[in-house]
Calcineurin-like phosphoesterase domain-containing protein (Halteria grandinella), 378 residues
Amino acid sequence: MKILTAATLLLCGLASASIHEGNPKKQLKFNSNGKFKIVQFTDIHFGEGLANDQNNQRLIKQILEQEQPDLAVVTGDVVSGYAWNYWTRPWAALQYANFTKVLEEHGTYWATTAGNHDTQADLNREQISELDRSFNLSLTLPNAEANLSHAFNYVLPVFDKDGKEVQFRMWFLDSGDDNCLGVWGYDCVRNDQIEWFRREQTKIDDKSKGKGFLFLHIPLFEYVNLYNDYSFFGTRGEDICCWSVNTGLFSAIKEQPTVEWISAGHDHNNDYYGTYQGINLAYGRKTGFGSYANITHGARVFEITQDPYSIETWVREDGGNVVRETQSRPRDPFGSKPQTRCGGTLGKAALIDPEDEELQFLREYYLRRADLRHLVKE
Ligand SMILES: *[C@@H]1O[C@H](CO)[C@@H](O)[C@H](O)[C@H]1NC(C)=O
Ligand SMILES: *[C@@H]1O[C@H](CO)[C@@H](O)[C@H](O)[C@H]1NC(C)=O
Ligand SMILES: *[C@@H]1O[C@H](CO)[C@@H](O)[C@H](O)[C@H]1NC(C)=O
Ligand SMILES: *[C@@H]1O[C@H](CO)[C@@H](O)[C@H](O)[C@H]1NC(C)=O
């Protein structure tokens, strides 16, 4: 009897040790059908008027009801920070709660990385992380190590359906907001974040190594290479607005088996995906009604099957339509319109274009921030 108790205790000790890898609020595991389904909500842009916000809530509810995901992944720009009037406080937190309310009502757990617009109102990245984590169903974690750049750098493992062994991991990296290392354009994942990612990968020695996803807001430059030279599925409806400096995340991904899929947001009219040098690069589908879009609103879905391990992706659109791409755009190595640099770089260098609404917002935002004010040209 004594021996049995000791054995039971030992087993429980082991099981709970692995359960606490990830967020102790909830162990993520394959469901009883041996599947794990992720819905990626991106660029929702709450805060641009009641009608848009109500449409956001309606669509998110529709998608949750139709897809019944095991986890919602949020890849940034939940809130249109630029729509803030500069005096109403709190503001961003209330917009954020309009979003999380829908997930809570549906009982859906979620994990977040922030975008470039979330911080343009009255909350900074650390505060948004803290706010997000304060909700019971949020599985977002604080930065995995102190002093990592930006605020949403962490990993969540997904276990087999018995909750014993990690099957794959979901990495969340924070691509910041504007100007990578002071270079005009969009921000990036910094070298210290990449070093952390690289170090963590070397520690993995189970069968989950090399499997899984990396979610972030602003795409890597390699998305341009995929578009220019390779076949892909889906729509490339605007320039790829990637990091103003390529800090080398892709090299860390290629050095050792790390992730199989990267999925970004940021570019509202792009939802394409394809394989570039052995890694699948994808965009989510723009979810929200705020800000621009020339594409039907929706969300990308990833469904992972445990055994045999496989991944399927599709887009669930407003109205219920499911888009499963079957026809890729053929490889076009000498394409007539290659993209040569990350979009947004030139416009931001100017920051004076009176025709461009986003640049106007950005200019005003920079002027309100003592640390960024010097970047606005006279
Ligand atoms: C969002 O939150 C604000 C403040 O709590 C509220 O006034 C507004 O009605 C909400 N919008 C929606 C669509 O729920
Ligand atoms: C969050 O979880 C705690 C602990 O289970 C519970 O006491 C609390 O009521 C929950 N809050 C909400 C808003 O559901
Ligand atoms: C790291 O963060 C800690 C606590 O915030 C701080 O005391 C320390 O100076 C930081 N170290 C570096 C190298 O930035
Ligand atoms: C996108 O723009 C094109 C050209 O302006 C237009 O024909 C098309 O209807 C638009 N599509 C959507 C979904 O808004």
In short: The chain has nine helices and 14 strands.
